[in-house]
Amino acid sequence: MLLDTMPGCGALAGFAAEAAGDDDRYEGACDDEVAGAISAWDRVEAYAAARKHAAAAEFIRRRPRPGSPVDGPTQMPEDWDVAWMSCAPAPTWTCCSAGTHVPARTAPRALRAGSPDGSP
User: C-alpha angle with apex 73: 68 to 76, nearest 5 degrees?
Assistant: First the structure.
């Protein structure tokens, strides 16, 4: 029951992992319980992605290009230093809502607007 109602968080990941068991076979769980575990893992995944993107947005806020305008509510710069992205595994971000990849150079607009192409 807890896995069905708990919001995505680190604790939910722990409960779901415990339900999976050491071999990830969900021994003793009925089909409905395994379906509930899938739903729980989906919420954990969304939670982790949101936290990762929030951390990346803060990194961008700390590296505005000199003279770049900054948006009021979000404090996201219009342009930012992308040098730190060279250590990232790929120069794209995944936009969760659209399931698309966002080129790193457009990520600030996408994060501000909530859309992959930066449109409102």
Answer: 35
Q: How far is CA 115 from the centre of its chain?
A: 14
Q: Does residue 67 sit in the same domain as residue 112?
A: yes
Dihedral sign (CA 68, 79, 66, 52): positive
Residue 22: domain span: 1-48
Statement to judge: residues 42 and 73 lie in one domain? no
SS3 2: helix
- At residue 40, what is the residue type? A
Identify whether 102 is part of a domain. yes
Residues 44 and 76 in one domain: no
pLDDT in tens, 21-50: 999 999 999 999 999 999 999 999 999 999
Q: What is the pTM of this model?
A: 0.66
